[in-house]
Amino acid sequence: LVLSYGNSAVRFGVRFWQRQSQIRKMSRKIVLCFLVAIAFGCTVGRKLECSEHRETECEISNFTIVESMDLSEWEFPDHPHLAFGTYPHSDDSTYVVTIDKQLADRLQSTEKLEIQNVSLQTMVLWTNLRTLDASHNYFFELIVEQGHNYQLRELNLSYNRFQSIDFVQALPALRTLDLRHNYLESLSFSLFDMATELWKLNLANNRIQTISTDGSLHLPRLATLLLHDNLLSVLDASEWRFSMLHELNVARNRLRYLSMCEVNHSFPHLQTLYMDENRWECGHLNATIRQLHQLGVKAMTYYNKEDEEHCSKSIDEICCY
Fold this sequence. Notes:
It is a single chain. The protein has 321 residues and is an alpha/beta fold. It is built from 4 helices and 24 strands. The chain folds into 2 domains: 43-143, no CATH class; 184-320, Alpha-Beta Horseshoe (Leucine-rich repeat, LRR (right-handed beta-alpha superhelix)). The protein has an 11-stranded parallel beta sheet with strand order 2-5-8-10-12-13-15-18-20-21-22. It has a 3-stranded parallel beta sheet with strand order 7-9-11. The chain has a two-stranded parallel sheet with strand order 1-4. Strand 20 (247-249), helix 3 and strand 21 form a beta-alpha-beta unit.
């Protein structure tokens, strides 16, 4: 039909087709740019808004931060309490793999950060942060700089992949530290030498085989020390001075004996000692339980009662061999 109108009609048809092709290409470019902007905020600024799911926290979700990503165009809320992701509710749209120095500098006004279950691996700490809950991630490196006056007081790193915790030396204001369910195998308690404000330390459910101390360690406020579910065969507390310790949990380890001289000397105000599911020698356990009773310390079981078939003898419901 177009050819019947002559050459002019043919030229018009060609120009029309070329124009439509250009429009389609431009549309594809616009759509691609829009998608890239949504995913990475690379060419247009992106202002992150607080959701209405929480009353006091500023919750931010449905965004992605990966390594080597330019965040200069992003605008983060100026809020003292940020929450990245929707934990404990499921969230498949939020990923914060790293918080680098660029982002840490932009979050200086944030004093409390919740960043759970977002695949976090590494993070640069900033001085004004007082509370950090980064549990349930792939977190293995918390980056600190010596000489900075960090104010961090509450730190939850449970359910992560830490193999070392040298960063503790730079955090003298710590009051609570939760390291449950990590990959720790050996630990020097001398790392806590400056943490004189620490009152609760949870190291349960790791792979700790040895705990060492370089010289005397005095933690005057430590009230709770949780070491259950590890691989300890010896607990050397001879250099510890935890004068306010009330609760000690060593359940489910490989301990055969416990020095009551060390217990009396290192933990003079101990009230509760969880001891079950170890490898206690019966004669020693009997003497230990008797001395604990004399000191007013309760020897307790932390887990359910041992199956009778697997425990032929017990003292105060604590299995021995």
